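Recap from last week: sequence in, structure out.
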Amino acid sequence: MRILVVDDDLRLCSVLERGLTEEGYAVDVARDGEEGQYFAETQPYDAVILDVMMPKRDGFAVCRNLRAGGNETPILMLTAKDAVPDRVTGLDSGADDYLVKPFAFDELVARVRALTRRQAPSRSTVLTFGDLVLDTVPRRVRRGGEEIELTSKEYAVLEYFLRNPGAVITRGMLEEHAWNNDFDSVSNLVDVYIRRLRAKIDRVGEESVIETVRGAGYRLRCS
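Predicted structure tokens:
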């Protein structure tokens, strides 16, 4: 999943980017309201974490503009303003939730998860492919009943495959889903993670769950 953080507090942005990345999200950061609105309008995100007090354009205006343009991405307002009128203004501007600084990072992550679930209630929380099972709530993966330990990026890549069974997944699609905007497109990092994932989920003597589609990318093995 991709998250956009819009905040002019460089220290907070660094903390959120690092923490959300460790949770398996791809994170983009905008430093002011104009840049944040541009990012949100031109790229797909699963959620936006939006500060209120920012240079060039405040979060209320950004939120109103996005909603007026038909953008329905879940928005979590993040601000030091805790007065009731400010919260009402944020929600009336189109925000889906409101979190007051200072906050516990675990609560922020829980709210982001809740927003993305609410946005797509039809998405299953348990994904299966044969005897491979991924449960998105506790973020656990099993094959044949045996638990498999994955890193956050390995988990993000596997979830993407399981949500798109049979589809050819290009390297570019995986880069966009699991890594940030500053991903080095000439890197072989995607291939490295596919190899690591295969080593953990495949069985000795059997064909890999993830097959290579020559010249195109990868996909879950049709059989």
